[in-house]
Model the fold of this input.
Amino acid sequence: MFIRILTVSFVLLGFSVQNAGAAGDQVSPPSQPWSFYNGPAGVFGYYDQASMQRGLKIYREVCASCHSLKRVYFRNLEALGYNEAQIKNIASEYTVVDGPNDEGDMFDRPGKPSDKFVSPFANDNAAKYANNGAFPPDLSLITKARAKGPDYLYALLTGYAQPPAGEHVSGGQHWNTYFPGHKLSMAPPLSDGQVSYEDGSPETLDQYARDITHFLAWAADPYMEERKKTGLKVLIFLLVFAGVMYSVKKKVWKGAH
Ligand code: HEC
Done:
């Protein structure tokens, strides 16, 4: 009986999850071959530093004019392969409001590695006002905040299209295949040739979308690699331990009937 109830509830749960996906006219984004999902259940996943460095460049040159990245500190950029001097250099290109000083005034100073990324707007209202009332969300956790986050972000950035016949998009809105409801207040932020790459990677919308997604996937889950390494070690330990226990058991019970 209990098993039956359990089965029925799982089936119902399955249905409601499916329906939630269908609500709001959402198209599921195709899966992409991310290196951080490598291996069965992603156990061999790793971040590609070159891709993240290019993604950072895209964030700084394109997305940062509208979207904040409040949870990332400049010192965290070590994970992208930058050394201390390079990080200091990147931080110092930003102006940070600090204070109050001894006289009670706030003051501007160059950024330091211990600072966070500086937000483009003073507050949420200013951000909305500058974007026709639509709020550009903080990007620190965006790949966690959406279902199939990295696939969704890549699909969103490459998914702008002409609205199908019969659909009308009002001023300031844009048709996107993957945005729930399809009408989005963000103009296509990326296009071929927009950002220059120094490492010879293709300067295409496709590559840009992959790189910014890689960078933001890291920002949302910076400890993924450590976690997977620890998980793998624990798994190996448990396997070895199980083997040892099995041979002990065989020895202890040898000859017993
Ligand atoms: C000119 C300002 C502007 C720029 C530049 C910009 N965005 Fe946006 N973005 C917005 C606004 C406004 C919204 C909110 C749209 C809405 O809710 O209709 C938004 C929404 C988003 C969303 C949320 C979509 C969702 O599912 O809710 C993501 C993700 C996003 N932007 C990523 C990016 C990335 C990545 C870049 C850089 C490549 C970028 N944006 C550049 C203004 C901008």
Q: What stands out?
A: The domain at 34-72+137-162+170-230 is CATH 1.10.760.10 (Cytochrome Bc1 Complex; Chain D, domain 2). Helices lie at 2-22, 49-61, 84-92, 124-130, 142-145, 149-158, 205-220, 224-252. The pocket of heme C is lined by residues 58, 62-63, 65-67, 131, 134-137, 142, 146, 153, 156, 179, 184-186, 189-190, 212 (CB under 6 Å). Residues 224-252 form the longest helix (29 residues).
